[in-house]
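In response to a reviewer's request, we include the raw inputs and outputs for one of the modeled complexes. The four entities were modeled together in a single run.
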Amino acid sequence: MATITDVSKRAGVSRSTVSRLIAGNGYVSDEARKAVEAAIQELGYRPNTMARGLRSNRSDIIGGVVVNVSSPFYAQMIGGMQETARSAGKSIIVASGYADREEEARAIIELLDRACDGLILYLENALRDDVLEIVARSKTPVVTVGGNECPPARARVTIDNASGAAAGMRLLLDKGHRQIAYLSGGTIYRDTHERLSGIDAALAGFGLSRNDIHVEHGSFSETFGHEATARLLIERPDITAIFAGDDDVAAGALLALKAAGKLVPEDVSLLGFDDNFHARHLTPGLTTVRQPVDEAGRVATRLLLAILDGEPVAPVITIPTELILRHSIGPVRGLSPTSRHVAPALTAS
Amino acid sequence: MATITDVSKRAGVSRSTVSRLIAGNGYVSDEARKAVEAAIQELGYRPNTMARGLRSNRSDIIGGVVVNVSSPFYAQMIGGMQETARSAGKSIIVASGYADREEEARAIIELLDRACDGLILYLENALRDDVLEIVARSKTPVVTVGGNECPPARARVTIDNASGAAAGMRLLLDKGHRQIAYLSGGTIYRDTHERLSGIDAALAGFGLSRNDIHVEHGSFSETFGHEATARLLIERPDITAIFAGDDDVAAGALLALKAAGKLVPEDVSLLGFDDNFHARHLTPGLTTVRQPVDEAGRVATRLLLAILDGEPVAPVITIPTELILRHSIGPVRGLSPTSRHVAPALTAS
DNA sequence: CTGAAAGCGCTAACAG
DNA sequence: CTGTTAGCGCTTTCAG
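The model returned the following structure tokens for the whole complex.
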């Protein structure tokens, strides 16, 4: 592998000149530039990342922590991050935190040890104190996405859970539903609280409160959706609409509804959250609140790049959600029989 | 940040001793070990990856190229890679090749420049000649997964497409189907040919040949599945089973079938390939050939780690596919009315 | 505008 | 078993 010394010799200049040309800082005469460029070409020279990093303390690598790399949801976010990073000549290393405090700590330290220029964190737990300290001491800029507060973060990208949940609940109420179940995720998640506050707001608009609906806390999983729905079908047969904490919960709910011979949306309306990969493949297509997680990845990366460039950035950026109308929500049974089959698809499924 | 020199001073030994202890090679007396470990603890010392890499020419980073990081299919593979790499103290950088020759070349060079210790490639095109040369010169070990031949690869992980496709076709034939359409992906993919050869084998077992079924080449996309099926419904109303090139194609086919008022599997049976994320969420649950892509990621990484450790490895490892029986395949209409509802679910959906 | 010089933090012979 | 020595390839003052 050719080194900068080889190039400088061949071009008849000093190593510094070559270095300056590559880095694009400092002045280089046209003559020198030509010679160096030719030498680089001929030798097929590519700078050694390690040496450069050791010296300059930059790696051009951005570290990302998400809950789970293999999940389609985070894969999309990673895609957004990568796309943006690449256009700035940076690469991404991602690690999974598995929504576990210790794993998240491990992941962050792994990335810090890789000398990442900056970190993008989607965490589900508060940072361990010693990690907080390590992150702070390393002076590595941090941007967080969704999830919880993270003290060292210089910027935070949040997805507008409250408005999304409000829009969803409003749709249900508009369709005449009043006996509504909300199958929530766990209360440890910020998302959960944000969505509940959105739901409260929507209910208030109809002169209702959270006490007027049935709220159940479980987990963001298909299993929970299935179990809770099966139970509700017996305990609360009057329920006409289920708002699922996310699309996995919705998938489980749908299964339970079908198993009980219920038609969606004729008998029970179903609303999801996320617009996850499978939402459009369910039958009926799931009406859901889309979280533009790929966009969140892009925005977070853009923010981090700006910070690295020393530009000032907004401390919080909120990304709007979008109600995706498919076919799982209808008017409440008997309310307006003539408009039974309305729910037009705003977005092609 | 504490350096190795700080540690050595504090422990009252030389830097070499510290280095040896960290690397775990060479002998260190118990006394020295204790002192060094204490110093490391007190100083919160963590070795500088760049310096280490520059000197030792290892980065403990493995590079991966897949078609698209954001797709659930590759996300699973990445998950498998990461899991395995982490247990060996290595990290993974992935880049997307977008099934495009130039993008793949760019991705590989990016990874090589990051001084990856080894490369795991899932490519859809032949390597560009200059990249081939660069990879060879860098002496970076390469393991490929699926896809096409790649000369510098020291090991290849392939998924047994032929057997999978054969098993699928056999199932269709067993159920009495004879008017079968195979909606294939493009002929540029190795996968396509492998699956066709498996299909040929299955047909041969029934005294049939490829001429006895309807084969159509399109792309691995929902759109193709939809269009082709809609067309078939008119041109070949006698068809009783559709074998889709992958689950996306199957999803499109299912949509077209439903739109035409056909019941699956009563009127037409449908078989997918991949066992992609949405397969189990379709209605009916899609019977499909599972490609254990997460396992492929794990195996490829294990191979690469072995190569890096100087161990001999098998040049080709084939991972078996698995037929996942759900509910989209039934006996051919009218063939055995009594067994209309058989298709037992081997794997819970 | 350019070159010389001085390391970044670590590892790997090698000689004790 | 341990310390000394000599860089890995690059960037960055600092003088010219």
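As requested, we also summarize the result in words. The longest strand of chain A covers residues 153-159. Residues 335-349 of chain A have pLDDT under 50 and may be disordered.
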